[in-house]
Amino acid sequence: MREIDASLITDAVKRLSIEANCHLTDDIKYCIASAREREEWGAAREILDRIIENYTIADEMDQPVCQDTGVACVFLKIGQDVHVTGDISEAVNEGVRRGYSEGYLRKSVVADPLERVNTGDNTPAMIYYELVPGDKLEITVAPKGFGSENMSRIAMLRPSDGIEGVKDFVLKTVEEAGPNPCPPIVVGVGIGGTFDKAAYLAKRALLRPVDVRNEKPLYRALEEELLEAINSLGIGPQGFGGRTTALAVNIEEYPTHIAGLPVAVNINCHVTRHKTEVL
Amino acid sequence: MPKRITAQLSREAARELRAGDSCLISGVIYTARDAAHKRLCELVKEGKPLPIDLKDSIIYFVGPTPAKPGQAIGSAGPTTSYRMDAYSPTLIALGQTGMIGKGKRGDEVVAAMKQHGAVYFGAIGGCGALLSSCIKSAEVVAYEDLGAEAIRRLEVVDLPVTVIIDSEGNNLYKSGREEYLASLGR
């Protein structure tokens, strides 16, 4: 059994919160830059240029890429041979509290969905725990903005709807979102499981680098086909028209019930943020 | 060439703008988003005075990140505008002439824009670090308790925006997409 002090989790979450909000990962930057090269519509190219200029400024000035520094989604993969001394969820929340304060990040969480009073420190985080073999503890912080979160949808399709039903639902969701989630977007799709599991899969899909495809040929082909179909809609960057509506479609699948075909679509904007550390 | 706009923005000047126009805004504008809009409209309902003068005003839908030492403001890009649809017609009727945000607007907002003469601008969503450099000063003028959602008075220089919906109801989201698809022969 390996001991990990809870304060190490706090320190990591603090660092990751600041780092993720101010510096995009290389995969998303490369994807935006290559979309800019492929884009043929002038107005769309200009917007992609501004987006590149924006993340460059954010890098240089350690400045948040977007003012919506999100709700902190924290994914913990805890090795079964790890024992954490202290309260894990409190350690995560303390890391968020410090990161959002010391990093000059926006506090965007209200304590109650109906009473709506800001908690003032961006806590609580949305924490997802997963137990895995081993003696390591992996922490990923993914700040999630709500312009795109609000455009996310879930459907409980019939098995007879099949792959065509899945495609229709993903395309309909992106079409209805239109300019609202700040395209170009990244589309996380969860297929299978239960109602809640599909939504979780869709969110987890957004953690995968945009240049890594699903390992299964069926889903890899579906990712590629959906990306092409979305980029034929004409919505374009910011919805002003153009090819570049989406940068990637990431699908995660899971076994499901004989009677069901749950599909969740979790949309992210071009400011797709996540950073990971392993303790 | 972008059009230069000075805020405050008169009804007449607002009516001259057309969907698709690139503009650079300089002058004084105000920030407000969900919670501030709700409070403003509650005051209107109760017949009480408002903390800002809406006549010829431009409101930027934004909740900025905190300013670091030496900065006027932190990152400050637009938030999605449809959440303000329930409130914008009331404020437009009271003199507001411009809104800066991103995303679609409801029919009731477009009707108020056409009736009174107002324009809806889009700033690039997700470009908060870039847009921040156009904001020279920021001062909280109401609802400090709302934090990022407080109403701020901003002095801006050459804030880059595009007219999405004009006072005749023309919509760049529709026309821009149609033009692009037409260029592909679709």
Structure description:
- The complex is a heterodimer of chains A (279) and B (186).
- Chain A folds into two domains: 2-20 and 65-144, no CATH class; 147-276, no CATH class.
- Helix content of chain A is 39%, strand content 25%.
- Chain A has helices spanning 6-22, 26-38, 42-61, 88-102, 146-149, 162-177, 195-205, 217-230; strands spanning 2-5, 71-79, 82-85, 126-132, 137-144, 153-157, 185-193, 246-256, 261-268, 275-278.
- Chain A has a four-stranded mixed β-sheet. In chain A, strands 6-9-7-8 form a four-stranded mixed β-sheet. In chain A, strands 1-3 form a two-stranded parallel ribbon.
- In chain A, helix 1 packs parallel to helix 4 and helix 2 (26-38) packs antiparallel against helix 3.
- The two termini of chain A are 14 Å apart.
- The mean pLDDT of chain A is 98.
- Chain B has a single domain (3-183), classed as Fe-S hydro-lyase, tartrate dehydratase beta-type, catalytic domain (fumarase, Alpha-Beta Barrel), CATH 3.20.130.
- In chain B, helix 3 (88-93) links the parallel strand 3 (58-60) and strand 4.
- With 186 residues, chain B is α/β, with parallel strands linked by helices.
- The two termini of chain B are 29 Å apart.
- The relative contact order of chain B is 0.23.
- A five-stranded mixed beta barrel of chain B has the order 2-3-4-5-7.
- Chain B has six helices and seven strands; from the N terminus they run E-H-E-H-E-H-E-H-E-H-E-E-H.
- The interface between A and B is large, with 46 and 45 residues.
